[in-house]
Amino acid sequence: RYGGRHTVTLIPGDGIGPELLNHVRELFRFSCVPLDFEVVNINSSITSEDDINNAITAIRRNGVALKGNLETNHTLPPSHKSRNNVLRYTGLDLYANVMRCQSLPGVQTRHKNIDIIIIRENTEGEYSSLEHESVPGVVESLKIITRNNSLRIADYAFQLAREKGRRRVTAVHKANIMKLADGLFLQCCREVASGYPDIAFDSMIVDNTTMQLVSKPHQFDVMVMPNLYGNVVSNVCAGLVGGPGLVPGANYGHNYAVFETATRNTGKSIAGRNIANPTAMLLASCLMLDHLKLHDYASMIRNAVFATMNESLLHTPDIGGQGTTSEMVQSVMRNIKSIIFRMLFII
Amino acid sequence: MEFWIIFLNVKQQCKIHLGLGENTFEMFNKGYEIKSLILGNFFAFQVHTVTLIPGDGIGPEISTAVMKIFEAAKVPIQWEERNVTAIKGPGGKWMIPPEAKESMDRSKIGLKGPLKTPIAAGHPSMNLLLRKTFDLYANVRPCVSIEGYKTPYTDVDLVTIRENTEGEYSGIEHVIVDGVVQSIKLITEQASRRIAEYAFEYARNNQRSSVTAVHKANIMRMSDGLFLRKCREVAENYKDVKFTEMYLDTVCLNMVQDPTQFDVLVMPNLYGDILSDLCAGLIGGLGVTPSGNIGANGVAIFESVHGTAPDIAGKDLANPTALLLSAVMMLRHMGLHADAKKIETACYDTIRDKKVLTKDLGGNSKCSEFTTEICRRVQDMD
């Protein structure tokens, strides 16, 4: 924070990232949020490491970032690692990915009134990118689970549950098959759970979890899990509340935080057509404002977004409507204006 | 395709099935003495032997239910009951009893109920043993919405084909240093090619229009990359079936929003485990989901994937639908399509009618009542 204004790193990314983040900037300017964006472009087609390193330095400098998803070209050799991943764990140590799946007003879904918080270990597990071909035609991929990281994420989960007044934490695992790896994760969760007697703790195997999520999602409160299961479960839950266009995500580390859409899609097929749903990115920017302690601005924008969601005529195609991105953003701005007028009249 | 008609010296009525792919002709022989023999494919008249593994808990009662229904439908199947509780063979290695193995090797087809997973019994799970003994490399689960058993998802009609031997479930784990554990996911060219070939063959044989490979090659470049490459290679030989690839997270996301966009899905072990259970949840759970395991050397074992339900075992409360639908899948695998259709229709009609349903389906009838109702419908169809 310098001169009363925050500076935040902005990484446009690929696909729908750039256009959505432009809308965020437009909205912030309109709402007079005391925030400046430092734009750092990462070109995913170039294989050099420089632009990634620039981004990491910028995030270190500002402490907070808002990003669109970066496409991973998996026809390139395996040494060219996923850029999103590199940002997350190299040097920034963003160990907790938090996603709150909340049913939004005005959105038609099969299940109603869902409110699940998913906490996913973000740095290790199956995403360690350690692979080798021991013999031609036989590939080994290593999944690493460490005690430190498991304890850390479990602690984060219970702290968050306590902070938000949640009653239960469920650990998702496959320890019946991966006895040592997931067994260690589960054991760490149990250890941490014993230090939080006010919060109930149980565990569930990942395949049963997905089955329960599609039939009885209301039994879940807070869920904590290693990396890959987190990917699966967060996508299932995002689908349950209405799709990738609605859910914001946050990656927290001890010193840094990066905000993005929860399901990390580039949305290549809808890029540039003004039909992307800006909700996820707008709500992610609200999470960022909360993190920067600009709570008033955060609530204002969030309430404006919820009010817009209620008007089904403005829904974008992904949630069954025919509206455009810009129409939605205009509506949010109108709602912000009316919120401000109402505040002024109260004063 | 040529066909045999065997006329026998019989005094009583007998039904003769002639199989010609999808078409089945039924002829009643009303006691004529016929002595001529016409060349053809004798296939369908023989009585097939199937190894039946009742299992534990509710296993025996649901197996009995299936046997009763098959008898009512006059399906030409002879059951050989076997037990697969692990025994220690010479050399100290755990193995399934030799009678069971011999029976399976002979009949090539098996139907299995739920098996108890032993905790601290010293031997690995029986399911794992069966898988290793018969090299059951493909787990096939067709998920079709059941009319009459309502779930938030209607019109689901997809098949998950899961590689069952390697991947994340290789069981290779090490403690590197205290507090750091490594688990190895193994992907081989051979297994990937085999499962991809099976998936495309299945699609072709069952008139499915597309196969989707599910992977995470953006993160696990080499392992899932290898799997994907093999799928692509095999797809070249099956131009009549559409091939697409999709990330695991995208599949999950789309599956809970619109499951109708998926047809056949093929994937490595862990993703298969998660997705097949996810799809089972869409149609109503493990109590109504059939499953088949295809092995090398033509062996196939069909099973119900739910648990042993020890709390209701022996009380005539179990739901035999999962095992019954798996048996129907088995009939199709054996080419007995008419019998399969008959039993399947009887089962679906009973559930749709809602008059006689077991507790888990929302009614309060007993297992035997449910079975009798299906038997009645099957007999009415003749």
Automatic annotation (TrEMBL), chain A:
It is found in: Mitochondrion. GO terms for molecular function: magnesium ion binding; NAD binding; oxidoreductase activity, acting on the CH-OH group of donors, NAD or NADP as acceptor. It comes from the Eukaryota. Its main location: mitochondrion. GO terms for cellular component: mitochondrion. Residues 7-332 form the Isopropylmalate dehydrogenase-like domain. Heterooligomer of subunits alpha (IDH3A), beta (IDH3B), and gamma (IDH3G) in the apparent ratio of 2:1:1. The heterodimer containing one IDH3A and one IDH3B subunit and the heterodimer containing one IDH3A and one IDH3G subunit assemble into a heterotetramer (which contains two subunits of IDH3A, one of IDH3B and one of IDH3G) and further into the heterooctamer. This is Isocitrate dehydrogenase [NAD] subunit, mitochondrial.
From TrEMBL, chain B:
GO terms for biological process: isocitrate metabolic process; tricarboxylic acid cycle. Residues 49-374 form the Isopropylmalate dehydrogenase-like domain. One of its GO terms (cellular component) is mitochondrion. InterPro entries: IsoCit/isopropylmalate_DH_CS, Isocitrate_DH_NAD, IsoPropMal-DH-like_dom. Its main location: mitochondrion. It catalyses: D-threo-isocitrate + NAD(+) = 2-oxoglutarate + CO2 + NADH. PROSITE patterns: IDH_IMDH. It is found in: Mitochondrion. GO terms for molecular function: isocitrate dehydrogenase (NAD+) activity; magnesium ion binding; NAD binding. Keywords: Magnesium, Metal-binding, Mitochondrion, NAD, Oxidoreductase, Transit peptide, Tricarboxylic acid cycle. Its cofactor is Mg(2+); Mn(2+). Heterooligomer of subunits alpha (IDH3A), beta (IDH3B), and gamma (IDH3G) in the apparent ratio of 2:1:1. The heterodimer containing one IDH3A and one IDH3B subunit and the heterodimer containing one IDH3A and one IDH3G subunit assemble into a heterotetramer (which contains two subunits of IDH3A, one of IDH3B and one of IDH3G) and further into the heterooctamer. Belongs to the isocitrate and isopropylmalate dehydrogenases family. Catalytic subunit of the enzyme which catalyzes the decarboxylation of isocitrate (ICT) into alpha-ketoglutarate. The heterodimer composed of the alpha (IDH3A) and beta (IDH3B) subunits and the heterodimer composed of the alpha (IDH3A) and gamma (IDH3G) subunits, have considerable basal activity but the full activity of the heterotetramer (containing two subunits of IDH3A, one of IDH3B and one of IDH3G) requires the assembly and cooperative function of both heterodimers. This is Isocitrate dehydrogenase [NAD] subunit, mitochondrial. It comes from Electrophorus electricus.
